[in-house]
Amino acid sequence: MKKNVPLVIGADGQLGSILVSFLTASGAEPWSTTRRETLVGGKKIFLDLIAPATWEWPAGVTSAFVCAAQASLASCEYNPELSREINVVRTLGLIERLLADGIFVVFPSTNLVFSGNTPFAREEAQTSPFNEYGRQKSCVEEELRKFGKNAAIVRLTKIVSSSMPLVKNWLSDLGSSQPIHPFADMSLAPVSARFAAEACCRIAELRKGGIWHVSGSRDITYADFASRLAEEKGWSKSLVQPVKAPDYDFPRFTSLDSVRLQQEAGLASPDLLHVIREIV
Ligand SMILES: NC(=O)c1ccc[n+]([C@@H]2O[C@H](COP(=O)([O-])OP(=O)(O)OC[C@H]3O[C@@H](n4cnc5c(N)ncnc54)[C@H](OP(=O)(O)O)[C@@H]3O)[C@@H](O)[C@H]2O)c1
User: Of 42, 112, 168, 273, most Cβ neighbours within 10 A?
Assistant: First the structure.
């Protein structure tokens, strides 16, 4: 049997870094990419998606996780041309070359390809993004669907970990008895970084393409999530002081139906307590 040789593209980000750790812990010896010159070395190689498309990956790679992206909603909204060039044009160009080389591709997408008017959107539901980030992801998805079995589109809900800036600030403030002000009317369906990585790796192992959903088990407001986090850590819940979110578009629901992940990959959506306990 051919040895599994993974490549994590964009390994310094939240998902890429946990994927490298997860793969390494499972003995896979992944290659990875960075756009920070100082981090190049060993199995970490340089890639800036905006550079000319002549980049070559190491020989023998069997699967690629394409995590490099302008992943901030604000940078997509306020700089649509540059973000689209990276997130759509360059990303698709690279993925097409990887697929042509027989490499199985995992493309992380998002619940924001949907409007969020209903909970637990299904894989086959019509996409209806309401912001530029969602439109860019939807655009890549549409192209990748033509590649069928060798490309997996993995729609993830919010990945929470202690390296996520919002959670990092909450932990720091609550830990020093400072109040925090999470949104009372904005929801997330959180998954832990470890679960997100495990799901992506399992999908790559199965080499089954098409659309996959990786979601928390339900929607919860940021305020309720913060309260549960404070409670679990033994801090006073009175420090969690909810506020109304600013008046811009955000989805009412973010959860995704992830029956396929459960049935074909054997991974059930994590419950809230499980997700919170993985934040260390
Ligand atoms: N985190 C979530 O909750 C979540 C949920 C759903 C989907 N996703 C998707 O998962 C993927 C990874 O997300 P993430 O949270 O890990 O994002 P992230 O933390 O912002 O990481 C993105 C990585 O891409 C790199 N990058 C940006 N522009 C690049 C370029 N031109 N060339 C090469 N690398 C570039 C960044 O490099 P630097 O570190 O040097 O800036 C960074 O390491 C994204 O496609 C995102 O949309 C994430």
Answer: 112
Whether residue 165 is predicted with pLDDT greater than 70 in this model: the reply is: yes
- pLDDT for 1 equals 62
Question: Does any domain span residue 45?
Answer: yes
pLDDT for residue 2 is more than 80: no
CATH code: domain of residue 17: 3.40.50.720
Q: Which residues of 129-163 are buried (b: 16+ CB within 10 A; e: fewer)?
A: bbbbbbbbbbbbbeebeebeebbbbbbbbbbbbee
pTM of the model: 0.97
Q: Domain of residue 17: give its range.
A: 6-160+190-218+256-270
95 lines ligand 1 (CB under 6 A): no
Say if ligand 1 is within 6 A of residue 159 CB: yes
Residue to probe by mutation, ligand 1, list 15, 34, 77, 203, most atoms within 8 Å of CB: 15
Domain count, the chain: 1
Please tell me if the CB atom of residue 12 comes closer than 6 angstroms to any atom of ligand 1: yes
Ligand 1 within 6 A of 49 CB? yes
Residue 177 lies inside a defined structural domain of this protein? no
**pLDDT, tens digit, 9 for 90 and up, residues 82-121:** 999 999 999 999 999 999 999 999 999 999 999 999 999 9
Q: Which atom of ligand 1 is nearest to the CA of 86?
A: 31
Q: Is 23 close to ligand 1, i.e. is its CB under 6 Å away?
A: no
32: closest CA among 53, 3, 2, 63?
A: 63
Q: Sheet with 31-34: list strands edge to edge.
A: 44-46, 31-34, 6-9, 63-66, 104-110, 151-156, 210-214
Distance 222 CA to ligand 1 centre (A): 22
Residue with the two structure tokens 């299904």: 122
Tell me if 78 is assigned to some domain: yes
